[in-house]
Amino acid sequence: MRKIGIVNFENIRSYNNSEYLPVMNRLLEEPVFLQAITSYFTEYTLEELKEQLLSYRAINEFQSNFVCRFIYKIEKQSISQITFKGLENINETKGTRLFISNHRDIVLDSALINFGLDKYKMNTCEIAIGSNLLGIPWVKDLVRLNKSFIVQRNVPKQEMLSSSIQLSSYIQHTLLENNQSVWIAQREGRAKDGNDKTNPGVLKMFALSSTAPSLIDFYKNMNITPVSISYEYDPCDELKIAELIAKEKGETYVKAPNEDVQHMVRGIQGQKGNIKIAFANTINNKIEEFREITNRNEIIKRIAAIIDKEIHLNYHLWVTNYIAFDLINNSAKFKDEYTDEQKETFLTYMKDKLSAVNQNNADAERLFLTMYANPVKNKLEALS
Question: Whole-prediction pTM value?
């Protein structure tokens, strides 16, 4: 097992409490940041908002009193209802956890998990975020102030290993030395086709900094806790179609300038219907069953499969998922889960969304339906 010495985290770590006021003072000089907060907190003047933000002395205080109020406003404006399940499983006296979830929305997935933890009076977790989303300096400041650490993307090939070791070491340092839970997606990038699958490479990266007696002990020490995030409507659904079409044709998809920013804004502002977030138990008992396996890749493969199964079993299926599954499969398997009126409403929704991006064609409709149908397919397989 590789042993890691002292690693410098300065370029990727989240900010600490002593940095709160200097960073916040920088943010309060940014016109776009000021415009964003005043557009959501219309009940306050700009001076009142500045006074509030400069009154905090700890990042947890900033999160609980400001960031979570911001999420609450998003909930009121673009979410019908958000519910949390399984938070009773999160007993902080049993140590920190590595939350691994499916990934659908750039900003909201982790933000809503922290919103739920804070709502139930639990400590929020540190959040992994890709450097590709942090091209604007003040945005980088803001996310690091909000307990985010940076996953370096597009690093030169010769630096990939050292970058992965640094990230692995930081996650271990955060969990075991800072006693701070961590969230990371089960794969790089969102599952734009709705097919939530864990990339074993993520699990391999974790183990680069292992000093545990065995790989089994290492993964158990992380207290891996799968989380399922289920959106009734994906506010970016039609925006994902062009990339899905390109990939199906074997073409390289090139993002438009500021495309990620467009998706982040739409994810926050777009209508999402109902959302359910389900926290599973840790998978430590299941990992222990693999102790006799000697092949590292086999262990990692099996752990990834466990995470997938937990996410799929706990995924809440909405009417939109059932309708899409029946339509794409030309079946009536789930006809009792929705009405004819709901089916027509969803079809109209799909056609309107695809029209907005000039994708009114059979291939686009098939990919759109597949996006919503895949969670049903995965749950059926997990139950079998």
Answer: 0.95
